[in-house]
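Example record used in the benchmark description.
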Amino acid sequence: MLPFYSFAYIKKVKYMEEMSEKIFLKKIGEKLKFYRKKAGYSNYEYFAYDNNISRPQYGKYEAGANIQLNTLYKILKALKVTPEEFFKGID
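Model output (structure tokens):
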């Protein structure tokens, strides 16, 4: 027989999963900002413009917005950072 979970419990589990995702995306954004600055770009708009990326959208990525894998790959390529290097330390 399957265990019974209350609606409040299920809602709490779902909330915890959403928070984990937000924390993960925030870490991605922080890493993007770190490597952008390391590449010599003090302003995200200059980096986005130089690499043909939407400036407002790139700003959202650094702030923790969801990002598609192919877009992340394009950005990492522009930053000259390998995916292994980028994701090191993100858990």
